[in-house]
Specification:
Order of helices and strands: HHHHEHHEHH
Oligomer: single chain
Distance between the termini: 35 Å
Helix content: 55-70%
Strand content: under 5%
Shape: globular
Structural class: mainly alpha
Length: about 240
Amino acid sequence: MLPRFVGRLGIADAVTIANAALGFVAVVIAFIDIDLAARLILFAAVADGLDGILARRYGGTDAGPYLDSLADVASFAVAPAVLAFVVITDGFELGFDTVTPELLLVTVISALFVAMAVTRLGMYTAYDISGSHTEGVQTTLAATVIGAAILAGETNPLLILGVTGAFCYLMVSRIQYPDLLARDAAIMGVVHVLAILIPNFAGRTFPYALLTLGIAYMTLSPWLYWREDAQPAAPEVHGNA
C-alpha cells in the first residue's frame, strides 16, 4: 500500500519537505563544522525560494502553505538558533558541566528566537501569504543574515548574541517589508548561491555581499523600496516567511 501522500503532494512540496530535512542536518553539522552548517542554512533558503517557483510553474497543493511553514521551523527557526548557540558558547568558552548565568542567558535568547520565529511563521501563513508585503522580518532573512555573518567570519560572540536577540523582536514587529521584485530577487539569489559555493573567494567577498544585501533590505526596504503594487509603508513601521 502506497503512503497517503502519493498523488496528493507535488514537486514543490517534495522540495519543501527536503528543506526540513536539510534544517536537521544543519543542526547536527553545527557541532562539527560551523561554516558548513551555515552553508546548509543558506542552501535551505535557496530551496525555500525554489519551492515557490515550482509551485507557480507546476501548481501548488492545499497542503503546500502548511508544509512550507513547518519546514521553515526546522531550517529558519531551530537551525539558526543552534548555530548562534554554538558560536556564542564557543566564543565565550562556556562549558556544559554546570548551568551558569551566562549559559542560561544564551539558551534563553536562542529559545526565544525559535519561539518568535514559530510565531512569525504562523502569523505569516494566516495573514500575509497572499499579499505583496509582510509584517516583521522574514525568518528566511533572519537565518540568512546569521548564516552569512558566520561565513563572512563575523563570529564575535557578543555580536551574534546581539543580532539573535534583535531578531527575536524584529520577526514579530509591525514593520512592513515588501516582497522583492523578480529582478532584485534574482540578483540576491545569484549572490546567495555564490556565497554557498565559493565562500572563501577573494576574502569571503560573496558572504559579505550577501550579508550587506540582507542588512540593506532589512533596514531600508520598509521606507525606500518601490513597488508599483505595494501599499505605502505604515507609520508604525511593513515576504516570504
